[in-house]
Specification:
By secondary structure, this protein is of the alpha/beta class. The chain is built from twelve helices and ten strands. It has a five-stranded mixed β-sheet, sandwiched between helices. The chain binds 5'-O-[(R)-(carboxyoxy)(hydroxy)phosphoryl]adenosine (KG4) and zinc ion (ZN).
């Protein structure tokens, strides 16, 4: 029986994360610095700014994770670090730090693909056999893929423009939701989910998104624009041009969230049919939903209905594992370590890659 303790470092976007995970999937040390509040107030991630914050926090975060694990760096079996995809300036901070660390302590390095790490995290908490269907939805991505093995993914569909989390964030910002006391500290998506609970989803309708070609791709730009236009119209009806603080915000949020759900379900249905026809999934058909948007309980519930209709079970990691963190990177390191893959001969020559 192989024993392993791997440190994972994540800096691909706006969260600085580090964690130590062992071969059993136990989290033995975890630390995270989230820039969510800054991102919300800036209305997006500013590369230079995100880089500066990563630089400021990375050393503390890594040391914190190691200290919680009660480990000296020399006791680690490897350092896993996100190298793609992500913002170059942000990725660079984590990668340089990891290089420095493996050099100083003579450790192996395992470069990690951020989306693959999201995809495999569910295996840390649940028994899921390959191949299974992965549905990732975050602020930067929306994709469907068949996870065939630890390092073998078949991409079925991708996002052609704006990702769902980004649409949530932009609409939340336009509605100035963060000025509501019950929304402090929440992400744009979480704010909209919250308001939607007391809204009527049939108030503001939007046409469904259709592609000319049948595919499993996503496009959320149209939905976002449609609801931005509704906000403008409501403002002028209510005589509050430009303020964003419309009286029926909860109805708008509920309708918008419903439109997002409908658009998430269509490519998923297609992917499930495609997988069935080509016998691409394991006997116990499993769909793993992850990424920040998977925190949304309303969306999760709707997606689960689609899965059940197709005879598949839906697995969603707990919210803290759905959003960006160091744990998923460490776990991906463990999965690669256990099957002897993913090591690099010369860590110092590893480069980050753009999205
Ligand atoms: O995966 P993640 O932490 O970072 C990346 O984008 O890679 O996802 C963050 C995104 C944000 O856009 C945020 O608004 C969205 O996930 N999000 C949600 C919810 N919680 C977070 N979207 C919808 N509903 C939520 N409850
Ligand atoms: Zn992510």
């Amino acid at each position: 029986e192989i024993r392993a303790r791997i440190l994972g470092i994540e800096t691909s976007c706006d969260d600085t994360g580090a964690a130590v995970v062992n071969e059993k999937g136990e989290i033995i040390g975890n630390a995270l610095h989230s820039q969510t509040e800054t991102t919300v107030s800036l209305g997006g991630v500013l590369p230079q700014y995100a880089k500066a914050l990563h630089k400021k926090h990375i050393d503390t975060i890594v040391k914190d994770a190691l200290q919680k694990a009660q480990l000296h760096p020399k006791e680690l079996d490897a350092v896993a670090v996100t190298v793609e995809p992500g913002m170059p300036l942000s990725l660079e901070v984590g990668l340089s730090y990891a290089k420095q660390m493996v050099l100083e302590h003579g450790l192996p390095m395992i470069p990690i693909h951020h989306m693959e790490a999201h995809a495999l995290t569910a295996r840390m908490v649940e028994q899921i056999d390959f191949p299974f269907l992965v549905f990732l939805a975050s602020g930067g991505h929306c994709l469907l893929a068949v996870a065939r093995d630890v390092d073998d993914f078949l991409l079925l569909g991708n996002c052609t423009d704006c990702a769902p989390g980004d649409a949530f964030d932009k609409v939340a910002r336009r509605l100035k939701l963060k000025t509501l006391p019950e929304c402090t500290g929440k992400s744009g998506g979480a704010m909209i989910e919250h308001l939607s609970r007391c809204g009527n989803r049939d108030t503001f309708n939007a046409p469904d998104v259709f592609f000319k070609k049948r595919s499993c791709n996503f496009s959320f730009h149209g939905i976002k624009s449609h609801y931005m236009r509704y906000i403008l119209e409501e403002e002028s009806k209510q005589g509050i041009e430009g303020s964003g603080v419309i009286s029926n915000a909860s109805d708008l949020c509920a309708s918008f969230q419903y439109a997002i759900l409908r658009h998430m379900c269509r490519p998923l249905q297609r992917a499930l049919v495609f997988c069935d026809n080509n016998n691409l999934l394991a006997e116990t058909k499993t769909v793993v939903l992850s990424g920040g948007v998977a925190c949304n309980r309303y969306l999760r519930h709707g997606i689960e209905k689609v899965c059940v209709t197709h005879g598949a079970r839906l697995v969603v990691p707990p919210p803290e594992l759905c959003t960006d963190n160091g744990i998923m990177i460490a776990w991906n390191g463990i999965e690669k370590y256990l099957c002897g893959r993913g090591f690099v001969d010369d860590p110092q020559s590893v480069c980050y890659r753009n999205r």
